[in-house]
Amino acid sequence: MTTPDDHTLLRRAIALAAKAKEGGDPPFGSLLAAPDGTVLAEEHNTTLTDRDVTAHPELKLARWAARELDAETAARTTMYTSCQPCGMCEAVIQRAGLRRVVYALSNEQLLDIRPGSGQPPVPQEGPALLDEVRAVVEGYYR
To answer: Residue 119 above 80 pLDDT?
Structure first.
């Protein structure tokens, strides 16, 4: 359940999305906030201006959090974002240890506004060479 304070921070994320759009990039913006509402960092989409398909604001902020915040602080930090994070960003958010995301527009709602991504699914094949890869990976996660 979102609160009026969440809505205030979410409006800032939406303003960052507008900034991205004004700069010629896709209209997505995000920020990280401490439990008291202090904004720790903010980003907007720069996939076109940076010529980097991974320059989503959520991914940039998750990377920042992983570098700059200890695990306890990251777990108490909330990401506010104009649109629900994509699968790529969601995975990085999780790896960074962030435990709460508040978004304005769901991915389903985004598809209603912008049908289809224009990108076909990438076929994946595997698993293969299990014994060879197991020898490399085993023992690392102890």
So the answer is: no
